[in-house]
UniProtKB/TrEMBL annotation, chains A, B:
Entries under InterPro entries matching the protein: 6-PGluconate_DH-like_C_sf, NAD(P)-bd_dom_sf, PDH_C, PDH_N, Preph/Arog_dehydrog, Prephen_DH
Originating species: Verminephrobacter eiseniae (strain EF01-2)
Keyword terms of this UniProt record: Oxidoreductase
UniProt-listed Enzyme Commission number(s): 1.3.1.12
Record domain Prephenate/arogenate dehydrogenase: where: 3-291
Parts forming coiled coils: none
Protein name: Prephenate dehydrogenase
GO molecular function, one term: prephenate dehydrogenase (NADP+) activity
Gene Ontology biological process terms, A to Z: tyrosine biosynthetic process
């Protein structure tokens, strides 16, 4: 149980965390700050936060838990701005989609207080953003990846673990590097491909006509292309090295299919599609299988 | 109103058509045939068809409407097998995802009776297949593309149009070539990319671990990768020329994003993502916009 949540960034992710904490009775009071005063005001009117703070630092004042839910590129400046009030007792987390850079930012910004910071990435979200889409159940039933380092206080990692479990999440621990490699493959590259797919179509003479004919397969395939461009600009830049590795592998897999197609090798083509189809048909979101990846699934 | 539907291919698409025709009272009796006798038997037991036919030809006997719902590569052989019983009064349609090859197959197979054949592509379907997934509402609210040629009887095109409208579809007419270009872009290439994405991941050392971490974005992006490999082998081979054109355009769009990323050009990257994001956010499935594409949206 926490007394006061200091929420920095009252968007979809931060707002949903505040609502979930309130709904489960894990926090008494939420003090919120967003860069845009109108967002903070809206968050208060929507009941997502109880009190508006005029600055990130003021949102942290008196808090025993702090969530930094800002674009990953803003993490370092945000942590620097609050460093002054961080205590060893305070649990600080982020919700960023990349972790190696966030861990480095936190070390530079928080220095001797970095042990309070537990890097976190909840595998939830939406192509829509903004506090008006905040949802107390956004994290319920989802995975959360924690990427503590040797500098992170063990008891803070435990507190973070119990907190996310109380919100209905399955908690997995990974190194920041393993996290970034995995998410380049299963999240960041799919976003890049979906963005590129849209740009490829709208760049054509008949692009608008083509779009008017697209059906449910296209709808689902491109859903993530509607994601926030600024947020994804930061994620892609931050994780570009892992992304380039994944993109090269993807191009090879694409090349294999296209070669079979162009050469009219029906059996090779069918074999390649069967591999993909069976893998996807057997996949279940959130199924437990992380033993090999230097990870530690955390027992509830 | 039709007396008897001859259904050749009792899978998801054919079965759903039979159920929709019955539900709306557009047909009195359905005689069905599938290559696999167990499928035909299952279709009858599920009430999708009323009578099992021992051959495609026998399914056509006595029918005033015929739906050929087989993989596109089997269209020609199927039409040849039934040619003997085709009459000018009979409305014959397919549901294939490619149209230029289907039109050619139909001309070769049906010859002087090709005027009865109205090539059709309903923009519906699912990553699941089989008669057990047949659904009377699969086509309701969806688009259907008809691609008649100068050989197609005008009155058959009219009958096909009214029939699909009665099933709740919006009917659009395109040339077979325009159809194949558009669907290479908005359907066939997305399938190829989703297949390649799965193969790229499972081909890696930690592929299984990566998959266990994937979330809802990945789920939707790769849904179509679970599609039937044989069916898609045929579609990709059949439309490979248009597909290669679209793939080249896509690779350029991907290259543009990756270049901005690798060079750290934050503004260019943001601009490219904004283009994609806005296009996708404004897109609505089935929104009317086909004026430029030598197409004729048909008034209900």
């Amino acid at each position: 149980m926490f007394e006061q949540l200091g929420l920095i960034g009252c968007g979809l992710m931060g707002g949903s965390f505040a609502l979930a904490m309130k709904k489960t009775g894990l926090v008494k009071r939420v003090v919120g700050y967003s860069k845009s005063p109108s967002t903070t005001d809206r968050a208060r009117r929507l009941g997502v936060i109880d009190v508006e703070a005029p600055s990130a630092l003021m949102a942290v004042s008196g808090a025993d838990i702090v969530l930094v839910a800002v674009p990953v590129a803003a993490t370092e400046a945000t942590l620097k701005a609050i460093k002054h009030l961080v205590t060893p007792q305070m649990l600080i987390m982020d919700v960023g989609s990349t972790k190696a850079d966030v861990v480095q930012s936190a070390q530079r910004a928080l220095r001797d207080q970095v042990g309070s910071f537990v890097p976190a990435h909840p595998i939830a979200g939406s192509e829509v953003s903004g506090v008006e889409h905040a949802d107390a159940d956004l994290y319920n039933g989802r995975q959360i990846i924690l990427t503590p380092t040797e500098l992170t206080h063990t008891d803070q990692v435990e507190r973070a673990t119990h907190l996310w479990q109380a919100l209905g999440c399955r908690v997995t621990r990974l190194s920041p590097q393993a996290h970034d490699g995995a998410f380049a493959a299963v999240s960041h590259l799919p976003h890049v491909l979906a963005f590129a797919m849209m740009n490829s179509i709208i760049g054509q003479d008949h692009g608008d006509d083509f779009l008017s004919l697209a059906g449910p397969g296209f709808r689902d395939f491109t859903r993530i292309a509607a994601s926030d461009p600024k947020m994804w600009r930061d994620i892609l830049l931050s994780n570009r090295h892992e992304l380039i590795v994944q993109s090269r592998r993807f191009r090879q897999a694409l090349h294999d299919i296209e070669q079979a197609m162009e050469k009219g090798h029906a059996q090779s083509l069918e074999d390649l599609l069967t591999l993909a189809s069976e893998a996807r048909a057997h996949w279940r979101m959130g199924a437990q299988k992380t033993a090999k990846l230097r990870s530690s699934p955390v027992d509830p």
